[in-house]
Amino acid sequence: MIVSEQKPFEEILRMLKGKDRVFLVGCGDCATACKSGGLEQLAEMDKLLNAQGKQVVGQAVPDSTCVAAKLKSELSRHMPQLRQAEAVVVCSCGLGVQAVKDNDRFNLLVVPGCNSIAATVMDAQGNFLEKCSLCGQCLLGTTGGTCPMSLCPKGLLNGPCGGMNKGKCELDDQRDCAWVLIYRELEKRSQLDMFKKINPPRDFSKTRKPYKKTMIRTSASG
Ligand code: SF4
Ligand code: SF4
Fold first, then answer.
1. Which residues contact 133 (CB under 8 A, 6 or more apart)?
2. Tell me, what DSSP letter sits at residue 40?
3. Partner of 139 at 20 to 30 A CA spacing, among 60, 69, 72, 124?
4. CA-to-CA distance for 35 and 110, rounded, in angstroms?
5. How confident is the model at residue 221 (pLDDT cuts 50, 70, 90)?
6. Is 171 close to ligand 2, i.e. is its CB under 6 Å away?
7. Which residues are within 8 A (CB) of 52 and not within 5 positions of it... i.e. 6 or more apart?
């Protein structure tokens, strides 16, 4: 799940300078879950824009704004309103914003309403936890399932560093050191030989940008 949070309203207003008719797009998936782009947040944005003399001509909350097929099907139900609009404010992560721009048929100004923060999992209590930094060289098989790239603030591939104190991280004494967690997990599994192996430096060619992958759908995968 991509966590996003709404931008300060003044920033959104600045980006809308000279545009009076606005269409709002949220996201029924991640941005609804983290309360940055669901129906409630769009209603609030509508009120704020109205108070500034802007007219919200319509709004849409696709199931997943970053999935072109779902976005297009939702936007197709709002063509008359989109025709009237001068700008679209997209309250979702940056993926949704770019999906809207790529599928805009009216050459509208597309404005991000949120900042994207992290790729996370959501736990049973509804907390969003950053557990993967999309490094392209997953180490979880040798680190007992704990990601040092995400849980160690320095992203150390070999640890702990000299600042670890009584199992806590030197940069945040409320957090367990990621490498202590890794040690404990490997110890539990009698795999400490893995802990003793030095991980080589990251191969940054594996995190190449821009990244594109085409998934070939088979009849078995639907
Ligand atoms: S090592 Fe961490 S950042 Fe890299 S792919 Fe695995 S979970 Fe993601
Ligand atoms: S104490 Fe542990 S988690 Fe904190 S920076 Fe050092 S190695 Fe990383």
1. 119, 147, 149, 150, 155
2. H
3. 124
4. 21
5. very low
6. yes
7. 13
SS3 155: coil
List C-alpha distances in Å: 194 to 90, 158, 168, 182, 189: 45, 11, 22, 10, 11
Tell how far the Cα of 179 is from the centroid of ligand 2, in angstroms: 7
CATH 3.30.2130.10 fits 2-117, yes or no: no
Domain-by-domain residue ranges, the chain? Answer: 2-117, 136-201
16 lines ligand 2 (CB under 6 A): no
Length of the chain, in residues: 222
Q: In the numeric block, which tokens belong to residue 19?
A: 């545009």
For residue 159, report the distance from its CA to the centre of ligand 2, in Å. 7
pLDDT tens digit string along 149-165? 999 999 999 999 999 99
| 177-189 confidence digits (pLDDT tens) | 999 999 999 999 9
Q: Which ligand is nearest to the CA of 180?
A: 2
Q: How would you write 81-114 as a 3-class SS string?
A: HHHHCCEEEECCCHHHHHHHHHCCCCCCEEEECE
Residue type at 4? Answer: S
The binding-site residues of ligand 1, defined as CB within 6 angstroms of any ligand atom, are 132-135, 138-140, 147, 149-150
pLDDT number for residue 218:
62
Ligand 2 neighbourhood includes 179 CB (under 6 angstroms): yes
CA of 2 to the centre of ligand 2 (A): 25
